[in-house]
Write a structure and sequence with these properties.
Length: 720
């Protein structure tokens, strides 16, 4: 029995040894190349270094869109990772920090969520607490005693830290700035989409080796190099190794002051009249830069009017304009030598139907026996426009159509915001007499708000039509600014005399006509009200609009307002126009008491403006130095190595200088004049928690500066 067992053990040992030997041979020689390649792939490989997307700035220097670091907070709640005593001590602190980061959810919500999972017999080792946590908050949680190992750094091999696009002013000017279509495509609309190649930059690609789990180091200098890589199909592909190139920034034409008032006035009108959508556009006449572009539509989920994704009302919505198009028709007609501003028409009370289908054409604002051309526009007479068109062009309909198409921008404009731009044009005017008459007073044609804005802008500029633009400049990574020059679509859509005559008539609309509800004694407005049926199935709902320019004494800005699907007329849209123009006149230092000091700054004024040095009350020294370098201005500091500085004004014996500022321990720092970003960074570094109200720069704080304070207390900042 003993000898048999011994023999059996020897046999088993021999079999196992032979199997191991065969396995070694198989691994080492038969499949050796495959296993060596796999091992090398785990220890070395190609890694991508994502480029940082460039910023979008407003024309008044605010950040509209930027890239920030966010994290998904996952916790390993196993009791062996975070000790019970440390977990209980800091769970309230973590809950409050998360509530400050995501105010929509209470601290109690986070406390209960984490504590409930922790109390389970087998708590999850990778428990999702909150997505989109600011990196600074996530880092503070990592630094809490005992919590470092409990914060999960990678999930399924992917880091929880990632870059996201942040829009500082929320939904404001959303369609102009742009929305991201979806996470998979990574494409955008608006400025983000049109300038995507400039903003995106170029991701870096380089060889690297793994140092420890999750940490990789470059294996060679990150210079451009072609690298041959073998694929699974034994094919060799060429991979370009290159350094990361961050995206460039752009400066939008949007001015946050005007954009805010445009959206507020438009939203107020839509709420009051119950419209479906609307837009308000403000453009600088000489350059075509769009200073405000509000596109609001009803959001049924939010029960509010807001910038709705893929609904750029100004660019994409096509509609029959109604009476605002009478200006286009009349401008075309004035090129006829037989028609003048003094032309008088004997009007019938109304035009009877042509064919018996569409009823009669009549005026909503009264009836007249005769009207001059000027009064036809002032009173927005449909009958007057029809009589004029019928008398001069009933047998020359193509002539009128060609005159209109020559001066109105029916061709595709391709504005520098990515949005659908649908076909516009004129209906067949020979199809029926009624179609021709409809065309004479603003129907039988379909246009977009942006095109109509460009036309009115051309009238105010003496006939020179420029393309509406939404980007003012492109900024290189070294700070060099490349201006986007104005684009002239048509150097002269009509004679300067015709443009002057039309301006006088449009001034009459506001002084004596349908737009007299916005007449004022401060500055002149030249514009036209417009009313068009929104739907032929319900002729009691209208698209109300007002288009014009101001100050009419020396036009500088053009504005267009459209309210879609409301039960009222163009006079309501005129009130929105007035709210915007009042704001512009109040903010523009070149406009005073209804007159223009100078249509544009003189060379002397430009030189004086260039000598003005910007002053930042308090902030981070490296950022202020970078700004002065960008502007090519001298920078003076008492300590160029300090982190924080404040501006000390010049005296009789000393020059203006930035002085070193160091927060005093145990005392509340002085944050006055700082941006929210700088104030939060400084207070966090000193161990305080921060609550921010408003936007702009810090104008007050509670507790006040130099007040005795303990670390961890909340400092409330009010921005303005």
């Amino acid at each position: 029995m003993t000898r048999g067992m011994t023999a059996l053990y020897l046999l088993l040992t021999l079999v196992v040894g032979v199997a191991i030997l065969i396995a070694v041979i198989n691994i080492q020689w038969v499949h050796g190349d495959e296993w060596r390649a796999r091992g090398k792939g785990r220890e070395a490989g190609l890694r991508t270094d994502p480029a940082r997307r460039g910023n979008i700035y407003s024309s008044d220097g605010k950040i509209l869109a930027t890239t920030v670091t966010e994290c998904d907070l996952y916790l390993d709640l196993d009791t062996t990772v975070i000790q019970d005593s440390l977990f209980k001590r800091y769970i309230d602190t973590v809950s409050l920090m998360l509530h400050d980061a995501v105010p929509a959810r209470s601290a109690a919500y986070y406390h209960d969520k984490v504590a409930t999972e922790r109390a389970k017999a087998k708590p999850r080792r990778c428990f999702l607490v909150q997505r989109g946590v600011p990196y600074s908050v996530w880092l503070q949680i990592c630094h809490l005693p005992g919590w470092k190992l409990g914060v999960v750094k990678q999930v399924d091999g992917q880091s929880v830290v990632h870059q996201v696009r942040a829009y500082i002013y929320g939904n404001m000017a959303g369609n102009t700035i742009g929305f991201r279509n979806d996470l998979q495509s990574g494409s955008y609309t608006g400025l983000e989409g049109y300038y995507d190649t400039i903003l995106r930059g170029q991701d870096g690609l380089f060889n690297c080796r793994r140092l420890t789990r999750g940490i990789w180091l470059p294996d060679e200098p990150r210079t451009r190099k072609e690298y041959a890589q073998r694929t699974d199909q034994d094919q060799v592909d060429t991979v370009v190794l290159q350094r990361r190139v961050d995206g460039q920034s752009i400066v939008a034409t949007i001015d946050t002051r005007y954009q805010d008032i445009a959206e507020s006035a438009l939203r107020k009108a839509l709420n009051q009249y119950g419209g479906e959508a609307g837009c308000a556009l403000l453009m600088e006449m000489r350059t075509g830069y769009v200073l405000a572009c509000a596109n609001l539509a009803i959001d049924t989920a939010a029960h509010d009017y807001r910038e709705v994704r893929d609904r750029n009302v100004a660019v994409s919505d096509i509609y029959e304009p109604g009476s605002t198009f009478k200006t286009v028709i009349l401008t075309a007609m004035l090129s006829d030598p037989d028609i003048s501003i003094d032309t008088t028409m004997r009007l019938p009370a109304r035009y009877k139907d042509f064919g018996g289908k569409d009823g009669e054409i009549k005026d909503d604002h009264g009836s007249w026996d005769s009207l001059t051309l000027k009064r036809v526009i002032e009173q927005s007479s449909n009958v007057g426009m029809c009589d004029l068109g019928w008398h001069f062009y009933a047998h020359r309909r193509d002539t009128l159509r060609h005159l209109v198409e020559r001066m109105f921008p029916y061709e595709k404009m391709t504005p520098d915001v990515k949005a659908p731009e649908y076909r516009v044009g004129v209906n067949d005017l020979h199809r029926s007499n009624r179609d021709f008459l409809n065309f004479c007073y603003g129907y039988s044609t379909r246009v977009s708000a942006l095109r109509l804005l460009a036309f009115y802008n051309a009238l105010g500029a003496g006939g020179r039509m420029v393309k509406p633009q939404f980007c003012r400049a492109i900024v290189d990574k070294d700070g060099t600014r490349h201006e986007v020059k104005p684009v002239v679509i048509n150097p002269q859509i009509c004679s300067k005399r015709t443009a002057m005559l039309m301006r006088e008539m449009l001034e009459g609309v506001v002084e004596n006509g349908t737009g007299n509800n916005i007449k004022n004694n401060t500055y002149g407005i030249a514009g036209k009200t417009g009313t068009a049926v929104h739907s032929y199935t319900n002729k009691k709902r209208y698209n109300a609009s007002f288009a014009g320019f101001f100050p009419s004494e020396n036009p500088r800005y053009t504005c267009l307002v459209v309210l879609r699907d409301i039960p009222f007329y163009g006079r309501q849209a005129a009130l929105v126009f007035k709210s915007i123009s009042d704001c512009v006149v109040a903010c523009d230092e070149g406009l005073s008491d209804g007159s223009v000091k100078s249509a544009w700054p003189t060379l002397e004024e430009d030189s004086a403006m260039a000598q003005q040095v910007p002053v930042l009350t308090r902030g981070k020294q490296e950022d202020i130095k970078a700004l002065y370098k960008l502007l090519k201005l001298p920078y003076h500091s008492t300590d160029t190595a300090g982190s924080w500085v404040y501006y000390r004004e010049a005296t009789d014996s000393t020059q203006a200088v930035y002085d070193d500022y160091r927060p005093v321990g145990g005392r509340v720092p002085d944050c006055y004049g700082m941006t929210a970003k700088d104030a939060i960074e400084m207070l966090h570094a000193e161990g305080y928690r921060v609550r921010v109200n408003g936007y702009g720069k810090v104008r007050s704080q509670n507790p006040k500066k130099n007040t005795p304070a303990n670390k961890g207390m909340v400092i409330e900042l009010t921005l303005k």
